[in-house]
Design goal:
seven-stranded mixed β-sheet; globular; alpha+beta
Length: 168
C-alpha cells in the first residue's frame, strides 16, 4: 500500500519542484529520450513558479519528500493552443509536467497519480507528449487516455473524458 499523499504544491516548494523536473529531464537524456531538454536551460522555470503560485501544481509526498509532481491548467497555455487550437471549454483541464523522481520510477506512483486525478477531478483531462516516445504514449493509453490525434510537428494528443463514477 502506498503511503504518500497528493496535495497542492506550496510556494516554498518551488525550487524542489523545479529541481525534480530537471532531474527527470537529465534522466530522459541519459536514456536517449529526446524530451524536456529545454527544462535544463531554465526554459520553464518562471512558468513552473507561476503555476505553483496559481495553485495549479500538485506534488505527491511521502513524509517530507516530494516524489512526483504534475500541473493541471484550467485555461489553455500558449502551448495548449498550439496543440489543441484555441478552445474556450470550461470542462477541460490540461495536464502538464507529470514527473516522478527517477529513483522512485517503476513503483506505481505515476499510475497512482493519474488515478488520483481521475478520481478527484470532474473534468475531461487533455495532455500531449512527443510522438516518438512510444513507451510514454503506450503508458497513457494503458492508463485510460485515448489518442485522438497527432499534430503536424509530432505530438500525440490524448484525452480522458470524465464520466460520473470514474474510479469507483
Amino acid at each position: 500500500m502506498n503511503t504518500y499523499e497528493i496535495r497542492k504544491a506550496t510556494e516554498q516548494e518551488t525550487s524542489t519542484v523545479i529541481a525534480l523536473l530537471k532531474d527527470v529531464a537529465i534522466w530522459l537524456q541519459s536514456n536517449d529520450i529526446d524530451q524536456w531538454g529545454f527544462l535544463l536551460k531554465g526554459g520553464e522555470d518562471e512558468e513552473i513558479r507561476q503555476a505553483i503560485i496559481d495553485n495549479a501544481t500538485y506534488v505527491a509526498c511521502q513524509n517530507d519528500e516530494i516524489l512526483a509532481t504534475f500541473t493541471l491548467y484550467s485555461q489553455q497555455s500558449e502551448w495548449d493552443q498550439h496543440i489543441w487550437g484555441q478552445e474556450d471549454i470550461s470542462d477541460v483541464l490540461y495536464l502538464h509536467r507529470v514527473a516522478v523522481r527517477p529513483e522512485y520510477m517503476k513503483n506505481g506512483i505515476g499510475k497512482d497519480t493519474l488515478s488520483w486525478i481521475d478520481e478527484n477531478v470532474s473534468k475531461t483531462i487533455r495532455l500531449d507528449c512527443v510522438a516518438h516516445n512510444s513507451k510514454l504514449c503506450a503508458y497513457y493509453e494503458k492508463n485510460g487516455f485515448s489518442l485522438i490525434g497527432t499534430t503536424a510537428d509530432g505530438h500525440c494528443k490524448f484525452q480522458k473524458i470524465h464520466r460520473e463514477g470514474n474510479g469507483n
